[in-house]
Design a protein that fits this description.
- By secondary structure, the protein is of the alpha/beta class.
- It has a domain at 60-195 and 234-258: Alpha-Beta Barrel (TIM Barrel).
- The protein is built from nine helices and eight strands.
- Strands 1-2-3-4-5-6-7-8 form an eight-stranded parallel beta sheet.
- Helix 3 (76-83) crosses helix 4 (105-122) and helix 8 packs across helix 9.
- The structure holds zinc ion (ZN) (2 copies).
- The site of one zinc ion has 5 residues, from loops.
Length: 259
Protein backbone atom coordinates (compact mmCIF):
# COMPACT_ATOMS: atom_id res chain seq x y z
CA UNK A 1 0.00 0.00 0.00
CA UNK A 2 1.37 3.42 -1.00
CA UNK A 3 -0.39 6.35 0.62
CA UNK A 4 -0.43 10.12 0.85
CA UNK A 5 -1.37 11.90 4.09
CA UNK A 6 -2.80 15.13 2.70
CA UNK A 7 -2.87 17.01 6.03
CA UNK A 8 -0.73 16.67 9.15
CA UNK A 9 1.05 18.91 11.64
CA UNK A 10 4.50 17.38 12.14
CA UNK A 11 5.66 20.41 14.13
CA UNK A 12 2.90 20.25 16.72
CA UNK A 13 3.53 19.04 20.24
CA UNK A 14 3.16 15.28 20.41
CA UNK A 15 4.87 14.77 17.02
CA UNK A 16 7.68 17.34 16.94
CA UNK A 17 9.52 15.69 19.87
CA UNK A 18 9.65 12.31 18.08
CA UNK A 19 9.72 13.42 14.48
CA UNK A 20 12.30 10.86 13.29
CA UNK A 21 10.30 7.94 14.74
CA UNK A 22 7.00 9.38 13.51
CA UNK A 23 8.35 9.63 9.96
CA UNK A 24 9.82 6.13 10.14
CA UNK A 25 6.53 4.60 11.30
CA UNK A 26 4.72 6.44 8.50
CA UNK A 27 7.12 5.05 5.90
CA UNK A 28 6.82 1.56 7.39
CA UNK A 29 3.03 1.84 6.94
CA UNK A 30 3.36 2.73 3.27
CA UNK A 31 3.04 6.52 3.53
CA UNK A 32 5.11 7.97 0.68
CA UNK A 33 3.89 11.59 0.78
CA UNK A 34 2.96 13.90 3.66
CA UNK A 35 1.75 17.49 3.61
CA UNK A 36 2.92 19.45 6.66
CA UNK A 37 0.35 22.18 7.29
CA UNK A 38 0.96 25.69 8.67
CA UNK A 39 -1.43 27.41 11.06
CA UNK A 40 0.48 30.54 12.17
CA UNK A 41 3.30 32.68 10.85
CA UNK A 42 5.80 31.95 13.62
CA UNK A 43 5.86 28.24 12.68
CA UNK A 44 6.34 28.73 8.92
CA UNK A 45 10.12 28.31 9.04
CA UNK A 46 9.88 25.08 11.04
CA UNK A 47 7.09 23.63 8.89
CA UNK A 48 8.99 24.36 5.68
CA UNK A 49 12.23 23.19 7.32
CA UNK A 50 10.90 19.63 7.67
CA UNK A 51 9.98 19.67 3.98
CA UNK A 52 13.49 20.86 3.11
CA UNK A 53 15.05 17.94 5.01
CA UNK A 54 12.64 15.13 4.11
CA UNK A 55 12.09 14.20 0.44
CA UNK A 56 8.57 12.79 1.12
CA UNK A 57 7.31 15.83 3.07
CA UNK A 58 5.95 19.04 1.54
CA UNK A 59 4.61 22.17 3.26
CA UNK A 60 1.91 24.81 3.15
CA UNK A 61 2.01 28.48 4.17
CA UNK A 62 -1.00 30.02 5.86
CA UNK A 63 -2.93 31.20 8.89
CA UNK A 64 -5.65 29.11 10.57
CA UNK A 65 -9.00 30.88 11.15
CA UNK A 66 -8.39 30.53 14.91
CA UNK A 67 -5.31 32.74 14.45
CA UNK A 68 -6.80 35.38 12.12
CA UNK A 69 -6.98 38.02 14.89
CA UNK A 70 -3.26 37.58 15.62
CA UNK A 71 -2.15 38.05 11.99
CA UNK A 72 -3.55 41.34 10.66
CA UNK A 73 -0.37 41.80 8.59
CA UNK A 74 -0.40 38.48 6.75
CA UNK A 75 -1.79 39.63 3.43
CA UNK A 76 -1.92 38.18 -0.07
CA UNK A 77 1.48 39.59 -1.03
CA UNK A 78 3.18 37.98 1.96
CA UNK A 79 1.56 34.62 1.27
CA UNK A 80 2.60 34.73 -2.38
CA UNK A 81 6.16 35.64 -1.44
CA UNK A 82 6.55 32.74 1.01
CA UNK A 83 4.72 30.28 -1.26
CA UNK A 84 7.43 30.72 -3.89
CA UNK A 85 9.63 28.32 -1.90
CA UNK A 86 10.08 25.09 -3.94
CA UNK A 87 8.83 22.86 -1.09
CA UNK A 88 5.67 24.93 -0.45
CA UNK A 89 2.97 23.27 -2.55
CA UNK A 90 -0.26 24.75 -1.12
CA UNK A 91 -1.75 27.66 0.83
CA UNK A 92 -3.57 27.25 4.15
CA UNK A 93 -5.01 26.05 6.27
CA UNK A 94 -7.45 28.90 6.03
CA UNK A 95 -11.20 29.17 6.26
CA UNK A 96 -13.94 29.78 8.81
CA UNK A 97 -14.45 28.27 12.25
CA UNK A 98 -17.68 29.49 13.84
CA UNK A 99 -17.68 26.59 16.32
CA UNK A 100 -14.81 27.87 18.45
CA UNK A 101 -14.97 31.53 17.30
CA UNK A 102 -11.39 32.06 18.50
CA UNK A 103 -11.12 34.98 16.07
CA UNK A 104 -13.60 37.65 15.07
CA UNK A 105 -15.72 36.35 12.20
CA UNK A 106 -15.14 39.38 10.00
CA UNK A 107 -11.37 38.93 10.45
CA UNK A 108 -11.70 35.23 9.58
CA UNK A 109 -13.53 36.10 6.37
CA UNK A 110 -10.97 38.75 5.40
CA UNK A 111 -8.08 36.36 6.04
CA UNK A 112 -9.85 33.62 4.06
CA UNK A 113 -10.25 35.94 1.05
CA UNK A 114 -6.60 37.01 1.27
CA UNK A 115 -5.56 33.33 1.11
CA UNK A 116 -7.85 32.69 -1.84
CA UNK A 117 -6.39 35.65 -3.73
CA UNK A 118 -2.92 34.16 -3.20
CA UNK A 119 -4.14 30.85 -4.62
CA UNK A 120 -5.67 32.54 -7.64
CA UNK A 121 -2.39 34.33 -8.31
CA UNK A 122 -0.09 31.32 -7.77
CA UNK A 123 -2.53 28.55 -8.80
CA UNK A 124 -1.40 26.67 -5.68
CA UNK A 125 -4.27 24.77 -4.00
CA UNK A 126 -6.15 26.27 -1.06
CA UNK A 127 -6.43 24.02 2.03
CA UNK A 128 -9.83 24.88 3.54
CA UNK A 129 -10.78 24.47 7.18
CA UNK A 130 -14.52 24.92 7.82
CA UNK A 131 -16.53 24.21 10.94
CA UNK A 132 -20.11 25.33 11.65
CA UNK A 133 -19.71 27.81 8.82
CA UNK A 134 -20.92 25.98 5.73
CA UNK A 135 -23.05 28.73 4.29
CA UNK A 136 -20.44 31.48 4.50
CA UNK A 137 -17.68 29.12 3.34
CA UNK A 138 -19.62 28.07 0.25
CA UNK A 139 -20.57 31.67 -0.53
CA UNK A 140 -17.01 32.99 -0.26
CA UNK A 141 -15.56 30.11 -2.29
CA UNK A 142 -18.12 30.73 -5.03
CA UNK A 143 -17.84 34.54 -5.06
CA UNK A 144 -14.07 34.31 -5.22
CA UNK A 145 -14.23 31.67 -7.96
CA UNK A 146 -16.17 34.19 -10.07
CA UNK A 147 -13.13 36.50 -9.83
CA UNK A 148 -10.96 33.76 -11.34
CA UNK A 149 -10.48 30.04 -10.80
CA UNK A 150 -8.25 28.48 -8.15
CA UNK A 151 -7.80 24.85 -7.02
CA UNK A 152 -8.39 23.53 -3.51
CA UNK A 153 -9.42 20.90 -1.01
CA UNK A 154 -11.90 20.83 1.88
CA UNK A 155 -9.75 19.32 4.62
CA UNK A 156 -11.07 17.07 7.41
CA UNK A 157 -14.44 17.04 5.74
CA UNK A 158 -17.34 16.80 8.22
CA UNK A 159 -19.86 19.08 6.52
CA UNK A 160 -23.19 18.18 4.94
CA UNK A 161 -23.74 16.15 1.82
CA UNK A 162 -25.09 19.31 0.19
CA UNK A 163 -21.88 21.21 0.97
CA UNK A 164 -19.86 18.35 -0.54
CA UNK A 165 -21.78 18.78 -3.79
CA UNK A 166 -21.14 22.53 -3.81
CA UNK A 167 -17.43 21.96 -3.27
CA UNK A 168 -17.28 19.34 -6.02
CA UNK A 169 -19.07 21.71 -8.40
CA UNK A 170 -16.35 24.28 -7.79
CA UNK A 171 -13.77 21.66 -8.74
CA UNK A 172 -12.59 21.07 -5.18
CA UNK A 173 -11.21 17.85 -3.76
CA UNK A 174 -12.50 16.47 -0.45
CA UNK A 175 -10.18 15.07 2.18
CA UNK A 176 -11.47 12.47 4.64
CA UNK A 177 -9.92 12.20 8.10
CA UNK A 178 -10.04 9.54 10.83
CA UNK A 179 -13.40 10.96 11.95
CA UNK A 180 -15.01 8.74 9.30
CA UNK A 181 -14.04 5.68 11.40
CA UNK A 182 -15.92 6.95 14.46
CA UNK A 183 -19.15 5.12 15.31
CA UNK A 184 -21.01 8.41 15.67
CA UNK A 185 -20.13 9.58 12.14
CA UNK A 186 -23.04 7.99 10.27
CA UNK A 187 -23.85 10.99 8.05
CA UNK A 188 -20.21 11.48 7.15
CA UNK A 189 -19.88 7.77 6.32
CA UNK A 190 -22.86 8.01 3.98
CA UNK A 191 -21.37 11.01 2.18
CA UNK A 192 -17.86 9.52 2.03
CA UNK A 193 -19.26 6.34 0.50
CA UNK A 194 -20.63 8.19 -2.53
CA UNK A 195 -17.98 10.83 -3.25
CA UNK A 196 -16.30 10.41 -6.66
CA UNK A 197 -13.04 8.55 -6.22
CA UNK A 198 -11.13 10.92 -8.49
CA UNK A 199 -11.77 13.80 -6.04
CA UNK A 200 -10.95 11.99 -2.78
CA UNK A 201 -7.97 12.57 -0.52
CA UNK A 202 -7.19 10.97 2.85
CA UNK A 203 -5.55 12.68 5.81
CA UNK A 204 -4.79 12.25 9.49
CA UNK A 205 -4.78 15.88 10.74
CA UNK A 206 -2.22 14.41 13.17
CA UNK A 207 -1.59 14.84 16.06
CA UNK A 208 -5.39 15.11 16.29
CA UNK A 209 -8.18 12.67 15.44
CA UNK A 210 -6.49 9.25 15.68
CA UNK A 211 -8.77 6.80 13.83
CA UNK A 212 -10.14 3.51 15.12
CA UNK A 213 -8.35 1.36 16.39
CA UNK A 214 -5.98 4.04 17.78
CA UNK A 215 -8.56 6.33 19.41
CA UNK A 216 -7.20 8.23 22.39
CA UNK A 217 -3.63 8.01 21.15
CA UNK A 218 -1.66 10.86 19.59
CA UNK A 219 -2.51 10.80 15.91
CA UNK A 220 0.34 10.31 13.44
CA UNK A 221 0.66 9.97 9.66
CA UNK A 222 1.08 6.16 9.85
CA UNK A 223 -2.61 5.95 10.82
CA UNK A 224 -3.71 7.17 7.37
CA UNK A 225 -3.47 3.48 6.41
CA UNK A 226 -6.23 2.59 8.92
CA UNK A 227 -8.51 5.32 7.61
CA UNK A 228 -7.84 4.17 4.05
CA UNK A 229 -8.78 0.56 4.88
CA UNK A 230 -11.97 1.68 6.64
CA UNK A 231 -12.95 3.98 3.79
CA UNK A 232 -12.29 1.27 1.20
CA UNK A 233 -14.55 -1.16 3.04
CA UNK A 234 -17.24 1.52 3.36
CA UNK A 235 -17.09 2.12 -0.40
CA UNK A 236 -16.78 -1.53 -1.39
CA UNK A 237 -13.38 -0.91 -2.94
CA UNK A 238 -10.00 -2.57 -2.71
CA UNK A 239 -7.85 -0.78 -0.12
CA UNK A 240 -4.66 -0.87 -2.21
CA UNK A 241 -6.49 0.60 -5.20
CA UNK A 242 -8.05 3.34 -3.07
CA UNK A 243 -4.64 4.15 -1.59
CA UNK A 244 -3.16 4.38 -5.08
CA UNK A 245 -6.05 6.50 -6.41
CA UNK A 246 -5.96 8.97 -3.50
CA UNK A 247 -2.18 9.19 -3.76
CA UNK A 248 -2.48 10.00 -7.46
CA UNK A 249 -5.17 12.59 -6.64
CA UNK A 250 -2.85 14.17 -4.08
CA UNK A 251 -0.10 14.66 -6.66
CA UNK A 252 -2.57 15.87 -9.31
CA UNK A 253 -3.96 18.54 -6.95
CA UNK A 254 -0.65 19.48 -5.32
CA UNK A 255 1.09 19.40 -8.70
CA UNK A 256 4.17 21.21 -7.40
CA UNK A 257 5.08 17.98 -5.55
CA UNK A 258 5.99 16.56 -8.97
CA UNK A 259 8.28 19.43 -9.91
ZN1 LIG B 1 -8.28 22.26 10.22
ZN1 LIG C 1 -5.03 20.97 10.49
Amino acid sequence: MRLADSHCHLNYKGLAEHQTDVLQRARDSGVVAMLNISTREREWDDVVGVAEREPDVWATIGVHPHEADQHPDVDTAKLIERAAHPRVVGIGESGLDYYYDHSDRERQRASFRAHIAACRETQLPLVVHTRDAEEDTAQILREEMEQGAYPGVIHCFTASSDFADKALELGFYISISGIVTFKSAKDLQETAARLPRERLLIETDAPFLAPVPHRGKTGEPAFVADTCRFLAQLRGEDADELAEATRANFHRLFAKTLA
